[in-house]
Amino acid sequence: QVQLVESGGGLVQPGGSLRLSCAASGRISSIYGMGWYRQGPGKQRELVATITDDGTTINLDSVKGRFIISRDTAKNTVYLQMNSLKTEDTAVYYCNAGSTWPWAYWGQGTQVTVSS
Q1: Which of 9, 70, 75, 104 is most buried as measured by Cβ atoms within 10 A of its Cβ?
Q2: Rg for the chain (alpha carbons), in Å?
Q3: Burial call 7-16: b when 16+ CB within 10 Å, e when fewer
Q4: Residue 35, Cα to own-chain centre: how many angstroms?
């Protein structure tokens, strides 16, 4: 089993920045990829970004140029740097990780609210 713990959510004004972190523990040797999903109010959960061991990344079109995913394999942690935040980025952000796609493990989620 793999446990994922997110941190870094909060309230930010439009145009601001936040950095989310997700630390993995447990059977971390089984992890090939890590990433982030989000679920906004009344919306379906959607993939935001993901990154694999070989550095391959996938990003949601609406966040390209604003969000950057990175991974520190030594710390078993994935980050999501979110810049130029918009109100429509408001959502619960979930960390996701696994050995094969779609990744099987989920964190508990962290709330990001973008509001003035």
Answers
A1: 9
A2: 13
A3: ebbeebeeee
A4: 5
Q: What is the pLDDT of residue 57?
A: 85
Residue range 82-103, pLDDT digits in tens: 999 999 999 999 999 999 989 9
Residues of the chain predicted below pLDDT 70: none
State the DSSP string of the chain. Answer: -EEEEEE--EEE-TT--EEEEEEEEESGGG--EEEEEEE-TTS--EEEEEEETT--EEE-GGGTTTEEEEEETTTTEEEEEE-S--GGG-EEEEEEEESSSSP-EE---EEEEE--
- Which residues are paired to 69 by β-bridges? 80
Give 69's contacts (C-beta < 8 A, 6+ positions apart).
35, 36, 48, 49, 50, 51, 57, 59, 78, 79, 80, 81
Q: Are 8 and 19 in contact (CB under 8 A)?
A: yes
Task: Note the residue count of the chain.
Answer: 116
Look at the alpha carbons of 42, 57, 65, 82 in this order and tell me if their dihedral is positive or negative: positive
